[in-house]
Amino acid sequence: MLPLIGMLSCGKAKNEDKGTEDKATATTSVTIKGSDTVLPLAQKEAEVMMKTNPEVSVTIVGGGTGVGVTALLDGTTDIAMASRDLKTEEKLKFSEAKKEIEKVTVAFDALAVIVNPANKVGQLTREQLEKIYTGEIKNWKEVGGEDAKIVAYSRESSSGTYEFFKEEVMDKKNYASDILSMPATGAIVQAVSQTKGAIGYVGLAYETKEVKQLSVSYDQGKTFVAPSVASAKDKSYPISRPLFYIFDKMNAAKVKAVVDFALSPEGQKIVLEVGYVPLN
Question: 29-109+242-274 with 112-234: one CATH topology?
Fold first, then answer.
């Protein structure tokens, strides 16, 4: 089942038994915004955390790492979810705004390359992926598949996953102009599941039987490794990355319950349940 995309307010607005406003609800409201990759993890952790911490209300919005970082800079979110590190220009903006930022790794992810299940191609090299996304390879027959046009899907440029894929897979080359940008990771999964010639990339937690994951080689085709929690953990899968919570140090006390839960044994157990790689 795909994680929800968009906005989730995790605060308990009503007392379920009485159907009235719950007078003993949250005294602290925490807003989390940003990466669609981190979104399903943040949603599940907030849901579980608030059962034992009813005094904390959490509102979570996706939209991409860039959206979260901008919101943190503007002061419209307490925590930015990020699937990439801060860019130099972003660090400079925080410095200019006199904001001291704390970055906490909450999990690790394997970035999975997905195709339609009807596609007979089961593996690609990094070089082939680069050529597909830069527009050099346009037909599946060029990589051992059927004579069919490749329909490549990507996240939007505000996405940390978009940036990470460009740096780590495309060797920092630009995406082709005809690559189809999608506003959310779930939209890529849906598009690939419905389009025979499609290819896309998603975080490991978005794995579903509706699409097929490809094995990837980073040694010119000598070794191909499939994305999984195990292969990300032992670092045999080449497209792996940390996932972050970023917040203003001035706000540390306010976000402490959320960050502490994410790093706790219970929070890290949820990391595994959602489909990502725990820190330990």
Answer: yes
